[in-house]
Design brief:
The chain has two helices and 17 strands. The longest helix is centred in the N-terminal third of the chain and has 12 residues. Helix 1 packs across helix 2. It has two domains: 43 residues, no CATH class; 276 residues, Jelly Rolls. Strands 1, 11, 12, 13, 14, 15, 16 and 17 form an eight-stranded antiparallel β-sheet that branches. Strands 2, 3, 5, 6, 7, 8 and 10 form a seven-stranded antiparallel β-sheet that branches. The protein has a two-stranded antiparallel ribbon with strand order 4-9. It is mostly beta strands.
Length: 361
């Protein structure tokens, strides 16, 4: 009986003591938060910038284009390969995300090495010591880079945000929009028009962040909700009449690159959708980034038209996701690793679900 490989060398008295402890759990007082409602991790504000300043610019471009909420214009630095751009929010804000809308689709005019930095009202854009890094991006060793990106991070108090470009490859640094958020920050593979990916989180479910598809028929959107959030559902709205037929909903960690499929884990794989509004629920996961990859559009006009996305977790979700937090007073994770989690382990102790394994009984 005790030749089962998954209990070999485990003392019988130890197992008995463990199970005895689990029997006492109903008397443990509840300490969890109320998990009966949900938190929308994408409930974020786009801060309007008051002014923008750059180290230099090329003819036909200007700093003002960085904050005009349109990808129709851009700033392009006047120094080959490097430069900086700064935006002033006009007052001190709690900042939790930044989106960069680049110039050019599918690899053109990319930034290879840069820092996103924050400073107070007196921070001088020409003085490096006035700035603190919140994001550091470096793809120069790989001789590649990306155009559009978004970053969520632990909130900082700042009035000014600086993008310091150290390597733009063999080109001039160029950015169409630099957007600052109170929390989650969105991006997308490429832009058709308008305020880049900002419409994904503006609460308007009838609009759309139109995304031209690349030559292989794919396109994607991504939202960075900040470090390790507990997530159990995602709701999406497509522009009416433009529902995506085939798509994959995925999650990733802080270093998940939206341009590389290997960094992502599937949450849902949908074929033949016709609904403008869709919702996906799943077992609680700890994530920082959510990506939607789409390959087929109902009307076949070549554009993906995601209007809005909401990423949800239970109310009281942990500031840091705990992998060992598997249960609580209500049978769901509660931000504590305690006897409730031990009890759940006890309930399934020695259970096995491996089909065809003779030791699995």
């Amino acid at each position: 009986m005790f030749e089962k490989k998954n209990i070999r060398n485990v003392p019988v008295l130890g197992i008995a003591a463990f199970l005895a402890v689990c029997m006492l759990l109903p008397n443990v007082p509840a300490v969890a938060a109320d998990f009966t409602a949900t938190t929308n991790w994408t409930n974020t504000d786009l801060y309007p910038a008051v002014t923008a300043q750059v180290d230099s610019d090329r003819a036909g471009t200007s700093a003002a284009n960085l904050i005009d909420q349109s990808v129709g214009g851009a700033w392009s630095g006047g120094v080959l390969g490097s430069g900086w751009a700064m935006i002033d929010l006009g007052e001190s804000r709690s900042v939790g995300g930044v989106s960069i809308a680049g110039v050019g689709d599918y690899g053109g005019r990319a930034l290879r090495t840069y820092q996103i930095q924050y400073g107070n009202a007196s921070a001088d854009p020409t003085v490096d010591g006035d700035w603190t890094d919140v994001v550091s991006y470096d793809m120069s060793p790989y001789d590649q880079a990306h155009v559009n990106y978004a970053y969520g991070f632990d909130s900082v108090t700042a009035q000014k945000i600086r993008l310091k470009v150290e390597d733009a490859g063999y080109d001039y640094p160029a950015v169409a929009e630099l957007q600052v958020w109170s929390g989650a920050a969105p991006t997308m593979e490429s832009f058709n028009s308008g305020p880049a990916a900002a419409s994904l989180l503006d609460g308007e479910k009838g609009g759309a962040a139109a995304n031209p598809r690349d030559p292989n028929g794919r396109t994607w959107w991504m939202v960075d909700i900040g470090p390790d959030k507990a997530v159990d559902s995602v709701d999406m709205w497509f522009h009416p009449g433009y529902a995506e037929k085939d798509y994959v909903l995925q999650y990733g960690a802080a270093n998940a690159d939206p341009y590389y499929d290997v960094d992502w884990t599937d949450l849902a794989n949908v074929i033949g959708n016709t609904d403008d509004a869709v919702s996906h629920s799943f077992a609680l996961v700890g994530v920082q980034r959510i990506r939607l990859v789409s390959t087929a559009n109902v009307v076949g006009d070549g554009y993906g038209r995601l209007a809005e996305i909401e990423i949800n977790g239970p109310t009281g979700s942990c500031d840091t996701y705990l992998e060992a937090d598997i249960s609580g007073p209500d049978g769901v994770p509660d931000c504590y690793v305690d006897l409730y989690d031990l009890g759940k382990l006890g309930e399934q102790w020695l259970d096995c679900t491996t089909t065809g394994d003779p030791d699995c009984i």
